[in-house]
Design goal:
The complex is a heterodimer. Chain A is α/β, with parallel strands linked by helices. In chain A, strands 3-2-4-1-5-6-7-8 form an eight-stranded mixed sheet, with helices on both faces. An eight-stranded mixed sheet of chain B has the order 3-2-4-1-5-6-7-8, sandwiched between helices. Classes of the chains: A alpha/beta, B alpha/beta.
Amino acid sequence: MFDQLSQRLEDAFRSLTGRGKLTEANIEEAMREVRRALLEADVNFKVARGFVEQVRARAVGQEVLRSLTPGQQVVKIVHEELVELLGGEAVPFRLSGAVPAVVMVVGLQGSGKTTFCGKLARHLRKRGKSPMLAAADTYRPAAQEQLATLGRGLDVPVHRGREGADPVGIATSALAEARESGADVVILDTAGRLHVDDEMMRELERIREATRPGEILLVLDSMTGQDAVNVATEFLGRLDFTGAVLTKLDGDTRGGAAVSLRAVTGKPIKFAGVGEKLDALEPFHPDRMASRILGMGDVLTLAEKAQEAVDADKAAKLEEKLRKQSFTLEDFQEQLTALKKMGPLDQLAGMIPGMSKLGQVAIDESALRRVEAIINSMTPQERRDPGVLDGSRRKRIARGSGSTVQDVNRLLKQFGSMKKMMKQVGKLGKRGKLPFASPF
Amino acid sequence: MKRAFTSLLRGLAKTRRAIEDGIESALGRGGGLDETALEEIEETLIAADVGVETSLHLVDSLRVRRDRGDAPDDAGTIASALADEVKKILEQAADGPPVDNGHPPHVIMVVGVNGVGKTTTIGKLAHRHVARGNRVVLAASDTFRAAAGEQLTVWAQRSGADLVGGHDGGDPASVAYDALDAAAARKADVLIVDTAGRLHTQKNLISEIEKIKRVLGKRMPGAPHEVLLVLDANTGQNAVAQAKLFDEALGVTGIVLAKLDGTARGGIVVAIARELGIPVRYVGLGENIEDLADFEPGPFADALVGAAGGESPANAA
C-alpha cells in the first residue's frame, strides 16, 4: 500500500529526459505524489497542502545536480524541508532550575501518558535525579495502581490520592511531599481527556496554576489521524505546553501526526516512545522522523544501534579474524549476543529501507535462540575447534541445548559453509577493507 | 438501557459539517463538478480519515455519474450520493451478528493495540449482556500491563460480571483456559477474554495471542466464537495495517470503533471495510458503561457524509 516516495518520484520524472531545470510543469506530477505520500502518512491535509507549496516554490528553477536524477533531487528537497519543519535538530530535555522541578504530563485517553511517566522517571534517575511520580488521574479505574506498580518496579516514590480525590489537591500535596522527602523532580501524571471537554481542560489549567510546572509535555499517539492538529491546537491554547512526546513509534505507523503537531504549534518534540518496556524511550530525531514519514527507512537509527551494540575494538579484531579465516563458533556466539542487544529483530527490520512492510518479513527469532543454545552447550575448546566434535560430544550438546543431534549437525554444516564463503570474500577483499568489516 | 446508535453518532456531527462545507466550497467556484471541485471533495474526505485510496474511490463514483450526465449538482445531493457509496461499502462488509452456537458459553476474545480502549469496551460489553439477563465471566488475560487486572476488576463490579484473574506476569493463555473452565462450570452464557494491548507488528506478542486463541479452541471446539478488534476512532491510516495483521493472525470477526467522541473522524472504518471486508460490530464512546451500541451502516454513512437536516441522526439527538 505504501510505495516508497522516492520510487514514485522517479516514476513521476521518467518522462523528463536530460537534466536541465525543474519547471512548474514538469514537477506537477511529482508534487501530487509528495502530497499523497504525506496524506497517506496522516499529515493533516491543510498542513500537507502548505508544505507542498513550500517545496514547489523551492524546487522550481533549481538546476538538477549532476549527481542526482530529478526524482532524487526532489526527494532531497522534500526531506530537507520536512526535517526543518520537524524542528531541525534534536532538542535535549532539560529541567528548569526550580526545586522540585515539576513536569506535567497531559494528553488524550490511551495516548500512553502513564507509561511515559514511568519512562521519564527512569530516564531522570539514570541522570542522577531523584524523581517522584504523582498520580493525578483519579478517573480511570486503577490508573493510580498502574503508576504505583511502575514506581515500585523502578524504586521511585509514588504520591497517590484517594479514588475520586481532587487532582489539583493531589498535585499540590505531591509537591509538598517532594520538598519534605528531598525529591528534586515531580512528574505529574494526569487523566486522559478530550481536548474539547471544557471542564476537564479547565482542571488542567487549575493544576498548572497550582504547581507552576517548568515543563508541560503533551503526549500524542503517533498513530493519530487528521484530528492531531485540533488536539495540538486546543492543548496549546489551554496550557501552552512546552514540548511534546510521540508514543508507539515502535509500530509501523508513518507518524505524520508529528508534522501536523509541529506545523500548528511550533513546539519541539522531545521524546519518542518506542516500546512498552520502561527503557524504550529515545530523544526525538527530526531527520529520522522525516525519513520515516516519506517511507525512506531509518538507516541512522539502525547504524546507531549497531554502533552501540558492537564496540570498535571487537569489530577490528573480528575483521582481522575474518581475514585470517580464524573465525570460530566462539566469535559467532559473540556476534549473536551483539545482534540481540540491538533489539527485537523484526523491529530492526522495520528500520531497513524497503523492509518497512513488516507484516511480510518473517524473522525467526526462535531459530536464532536455538542456535545460541547449541553453541552455549559447547565447551570453549569445542567452540574454537569444531573438529573435535565426535558423535558422543554431539549427543551431549544436543541434550544440553534441548535440541537434536540433527540440529547440531545442521548448525555445524552451516557454519562450515559460512567459513568457506568468508574465505572467498576474504580473497576478494585483500586489497582494501573487507566489504563487511562490521557484521551488520 | 443501552443508548441508541443514532445518539452515539452525534460525535460525527463536526466531521459531517466539515465535509458539507468542503462540498459547498468546491461548488462555490461555479465550475460545477469539475476536476478541481472533485479534488477538493477528495480532500475533505481525507480529512475525515477515510484514507487516500478510499477517498479517490468515492470521488470516482461522482466522476462516473458526472460523465454519464447525471451529475449531482447541489451540495445536498452530492453528500447523499457519497453517503450511498459509503453505505454500500459498509454493507458489503457486514455479515450480521454471530449466530448463537447453542452451547454456551459464547466466547468473545477482545484484541487491539495499546490504549485503544479494550478494557473499557469489555466493561460495556459485559454490561450489555448482563442487562439481557446473561451470566457473564471476564477473563483477565492482560497479565502484562501494570494494574490491568485491577482495572478489569472495577469493570466487572460495575457490570455485575464474574472475574477470573491471573497474576502479573502470568501466562495469559492459561488464564483464558482457566476462565473458560470456570465459565463452563458456572454455566455462564458469555465469556469475554481481555488481552494485553500489543502492536500488530510485534511478532512474538502476536504469537502469544494466537496461542490464547488456540488454547480456547482446545478447551471448547469452536471457541472463540468472536474475535473483536478494538480500534481507536482517532487513529489514522495505521488502523488499516492493524486490522490487516490482526485479521491474518486471528481471523477478526468484527471491529469495535471506540472513542467516537466529539472530534473523532472514524472514517477509517470505511477504508477497512473496503480494503479488508471486515464488518464493524459496535461503536463506543466515553467512559460511561451505557455508551456502546450496535453498528448500523446506513445511519453511520449518513452521519459521516450525509446531507444535513431531515432524517439526519446528528440532529435527532
